[in-house]
Amino acid sequence: MLEQDVLDAGLGDADDDDFDLDEAYDSQLPDNRYLDRELSWLAFNQRVLELAEDPALPVLERANFLAIFASNLDEFFMVRVAGLKRRIVTGLAVPTNVGRSPHDVLADISADAHELQLRHADAWTSLVAPALSAVGIDVVGWDDLSKSEREALYDYFQAQVFPVLMPLAVDPAHPFPYISGLSLNLAIRIRNARTGRQEFARLKVPSMLPRFVEIGRDGERVRYLPLEDLISHNLEDLFPGMEILDHHAFRLTRNEDVEIEEDETENLIQALEAELLRRRFGPPIRLEVGVDMDRLTLDLLISELDITEQEVYRLPGMLDLRGLFDLSRIDRPELHYAPHVPTTAVAFQPAEQNGRADLFAAIRAGDVLVHHPYESFATSVQAFLEQAAKDPHVLAIKQTLYRTSGDSPIVKALIDAAEAGKQVLALVEVKARFDEAANIVWARKLEKAGVHVVYGLVGLKTHCKLLHVIREEDGMLRSYSHIGTGNYNPKTSRLYEDFGLFTTDEQVGRDLTRLFNELSGYAIEKKFKRLLVAPLHLRKGLLRQIDRERHHALDGKPAHVRIKVNSMVDEQIIDALYRASQAGVKVDVWVRGICSIKPGIEGVSENITVRSILGRYLEHSRIFAFDNDGDPQAFIGSADMMHRNLDRRVEALVRVTERAHVKELIDLFDLAMSDSTSSWHLGDEGVWTRHHLGENGKALIDLQDKTMASVQRRRRVRAVR
């Protein structure tokens, strides 16, 4: 058995070397015990698509889910598929936990992705577009227009579109043009009327113009024409004297992953900027074309782009359904989710109406756990930082920043604090995928204002969500700490579900002081009291907790493990859960995206249940709870159960100690896992099945709606008191 004093300390003080996995477990596990992570990711995006297909959802939200699916799939190809291909080409080992060759993995990805993209296209043409039309929103084609409508649109084309179009010819004097990633293009075949020679031209559909051109309104009924339709039916203006033979839409996806050998560079920012420039010219990995594209045009694209037939996706209807983001913003409240205004957390509500809360006093009174977006980010995290920036007693502010925006009030507050003479440290992760360029810009803005900007550790991404404020009170220094599960981003905080813990606990303050020293200087800290920190200790800390539950089960005591993450891939964690299950531990896993666990394996995982919940908010928080023989422990933080999070990132989990907070986390978890709650259930073959209707055909509980109501009820109770 593990020593109880080590467990009480939050597992951070133990010498990791005294926990040997091989000695801890003696049971054998079957070889074929993991689900493929890439196919599991595609299954996650299928769940997004199922929301778009659901007629019970507001129709503009369904259009939004179609756009999310398209955006998700783009990133999957740009990063995951591109990474697999790069490793194959360069001869590097391809990480796979299912014992198959990388070529077989790519073939399976291609088959599933082709099927999903066809289903996605059909969901638009057969389900969502007709549903939009039924409520007065029509997306039509050129052939559906009247003569007067075509004339009005031609005037718009001449005034607003034609001047920014740039047709590029392909002939001996003009080599095949560069095709930017994710751009929508027209491949045009023309004949020179004078010589009879056939030529090819490429025309990029301008991304800065509205994707859907409004044709006209009649009350609440509005009609739109896709921009590429408007352009393709006015090509004669671009090629005067030429005969337009054919035109087809196509779209290219490139490898846009970023790889930097940090050990070999002297200046991370310069190296990253160079790599971002290279990203624009990454090799092609997917070509999307219309089903009607002729073979001659397709063969030319395949040849010039150096792409394989397997990487060609023939799709019916419109390409690039990310454009549906525009339609989903139409101001028709009855076609959206009912509005929800976040409440101020009870502890941060001002004592007097129209008064201003003293957040420092509230946190001194006891730890505060906030749940976004049900509880407001603006009146908690943002207000806390803004108060700290103005408070003359605050001496120092330290914060990690992974994804935010240059115009963010978070960045402004840090600048205000620095200009007020406070010591301010911002640890900016410039390697945050697809936010690299933006992060460089506002990091330099912070530096100019006098903020000490640090770019993290070599070889590691700093992903933890930490805010540490040092305040002088009665001649003593007090630490105010915030540890969250989500980014310090006011915009996404309204859409992402996350938890954050505010505390003045001295142990947490000392832990954060040591961790920030390690991140900004040369300190090497091995011991933390209430934090579990990756890459050195987090995995083993969790393995200890899981193994303790296993021992409780073997001793005949109740044992339960609850884990909520975005992704569950790490083999050591999964194997520990398998062995706990074998010992009789009840294991509940609540995962949004990828999951490599196989529940229901005889003799291995019968005690493991896996659920997934998707809805109006993106489930983003990470929760780890353990029954601990009747004295439950819970952690929240930024880490997913993936190799990159546990081995190549700085991550942090904090132990939640207030019993009411632990109960709140476990109650939320149990509601999510209940058979009366709408969710997807993972079967032993890796198939996710949606359970959203009861036996009587009535809708099951919506977790997010229920949580919204619970938070509002807490506020009303406080108001009555």
Automatic annotation (TrEMBL):
Record EC number: 2.7.4.1
Chain ranges of the PLD phosphodiesterase domain: 615-645
Reactions catalysed according to its record: [phosphate](n) + ATP = [phosphate](n+1) + ADP
Cofactors required: Mg(2+)
Lineage: Bacteria, Bacillati, Actinomycetota, Actinomycetes, Micrococcales
Family, as annotated: Belongs to the polyphosphate kinase 1 (PPK1) family.
Active site: 463
Residue numbers binding ATP: 72, 496, 592, 620
Gene name of the encoded protein: ppk
Protein name: Polyphosphate kinase
